C-alpha cells in the first residue's frame, strides 16, 4: 500500500499537469459513471491528505481517490493511449494524461463529505499540520504505540514501513502503551516522519538507515540496507546484531529489534 509520500508526490504531479486547466474526465465501460459530472470542467487543485487524494472541481464536485492495496496511476505526455484493461478513470488534456486502475474508491463527493474526512484524519506530516491533537490523543490511550501510529485518525499518511522504521529510529518498543510514551520521543517521531517522508518523495524510495549504520557506508543504500527492521526478520540488527523479530499487529506485519527497542 502506498504511504503518504507517494500520495503527496501524485498530488504534486497532478497539480502540475492539470491544476487550473479544463480537463477531460472519463470512466470507460461504466466503471466510473460520475465522470460526466467532472468532464470538461476546470480541475482547480489536487490535495493529498494522509492516504486520500481530493481533486477539486468546485462545490460538491470533489473527486475522492483512495488507492487501497492495489490502486495505481500511470501518467504520460502527449496523446493518451488506447483505453485498455480495468481502467477506472482517465484525466487528460491535449498535452498530459493520467490513468487510474484498481483503487478502493474513486467517486464524486460533496464538499461537506470531503471536509468531514479532513476533520476526522489526524495531522499529516507532509501538510504542515499541528501535531498537538495527535500527541493529546496518544497520551490518553493504553493501546500500543505500534497500533496508534497506523491509526489514520491519529496521524495520517503513515503506513507499515514508516511505523516500523520510525519506532526503531526512536528506539521505542512498539508494545509501549501510548500513555507511557515519553513526550520528547513523540515529538522526535513526528519530526522524523516529516523528514523521512519528504526524502522519500524526492527519491521515490523509502530509505531510513543512516549511512554510518549500514554495512556498506558509501554510496546510495543497497535495497537490503535501506531499512533497519522492515522485512528484515531473522536478520541481524545493524546496530546490535540481534535478530530482527516480526509479529502481526493491526493486521500488518510489525518488525522490531527486541534489544534496541526493549520493552
Ligand atoms: Zn538492535
Automatic annotation (TrEMBL):
SMART domains: Fapy_DNA_glyco (SM00898), H2TH (SM01232). GO terms for molecular function: class I DNA-(apurinic or apyrimidinic site) endonuclease activity; damaged DNA binding; oxidized pyrimidine nucleobase lesion DNA N-glycosylase activity; zinc ion binding. InterPro entries: DNA_glyclase_Znf_dom_DNA_BS, FPG_cat, FPG_N, H2TH_FPG, Ribosomal_uS13-like_H2TH, Znf_DNA_glyclase/AP_lyase. One of its GO terms (biological process) is base-excision repair. It catalyses: 2'-deoxyribonucleotide-(2'-deoxyribose 5'-phosphate)-2'-deoxyribonucleotide-DNA = a 3'-end 2'-deoxyribonucleotide-(2,3-dehydro-2,3-deoxyribose 5'-phosphate)-DNA + a 5'-end 5'-phospho-2'-deoxyribonucleoside-DNA + H(+). Its EC number is 4.2.99.18. It is an enzyme of class 4 (lyase). Keywords: DNA damage, DNA repair, DNA-binding, Glycosidase, Hydrolase, Lyase, Metal-binding, Multifunctional enzyme, Zinc, Zinc-finger. It comes from the Bacteria. Gene3D superfamilies: 1.10.8.50, MutM-like, N-terminal. The keyword Hydrolase applies. Residues 228-262 form the FPG-type domain. Belongs to the FPG family. This is DNA-(apurinic or apyrimidinic site) lyase. It comes from Granulicella sibirica.
Amino acid at each position: 500500500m502506498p504511504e503518504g509520500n507517494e500520495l503527496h508526490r501524485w498530488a504534486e504531479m497532478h497539480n502540475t499537469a492539470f491544476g487550473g486547466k479544463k480537463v477531460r474526465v472519463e470512466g470507460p465501460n461504466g466503471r466510473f459513471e460520475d465522470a460526466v459530472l467532472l468532464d470538461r470542467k476546470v480541475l482547480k487543485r489536487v490535495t493529498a491528505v494522509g492516504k486520500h487524494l481530493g481533486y477539486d472541481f468546485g462545490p460538491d464536485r470533489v473527486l475522492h481517490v483512495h488507492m487501497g492495496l492495489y490502486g495505481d496511476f500511470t501518467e504520460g505526455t502527449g496523446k493518451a493511449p488506447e483505453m485498455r484493461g480495468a481502467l477506472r478513470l482517465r484525466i487528460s488534456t491535449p498535452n498530459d494524461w493520467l490513468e487510474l486502475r484498481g483503487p478502493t474508491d474513486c467517486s464524486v463527493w460533496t464538499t461537506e463529505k470531503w471536509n468531514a474526512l479532513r476533520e476526522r484524519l489526524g495531522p499529516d506530516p507532509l501538510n504542515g499540520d499541528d501535531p498537538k491533537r495527535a500527541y493529546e490523543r496518544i497520551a490518553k490511550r493504553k493501546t500500543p504505540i505500534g497500533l496508534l501510529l497506523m491509526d489514520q485518525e491519529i496521524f495520517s499518511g503513515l503506513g507499515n514501513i514508516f511505523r516500523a522504521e520510525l519506532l526503531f529510529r526512536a528506539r521505542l518498543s512498539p508494545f509501549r502503551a501510548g500513555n507511557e510514551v515519553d513526550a520528547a520521543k513523540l515529538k522526535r517521531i513526528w519530526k522524523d516522519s516529516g523528514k523521512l517522508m519528504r526524502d522519500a518523495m524526492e527519491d521515490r524510495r523509502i530509505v531510513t538507515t543512516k549511512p554510518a549504520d549500514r554495512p556498506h557506508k558509501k554510496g546510495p543504500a543497497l535495497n537490503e540496507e535501506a531499512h533497519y527492521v522492515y522485512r528484515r526478520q531473522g536478520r541481524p540488527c545493524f546496530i546490535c546484531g540481534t535478530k530482527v523479530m516480526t509479529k502481526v499487529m493491526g493486521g500488518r506485519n510489525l518488525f522490531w529489534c527486541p534489544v534496541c527497542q526493549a520493552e
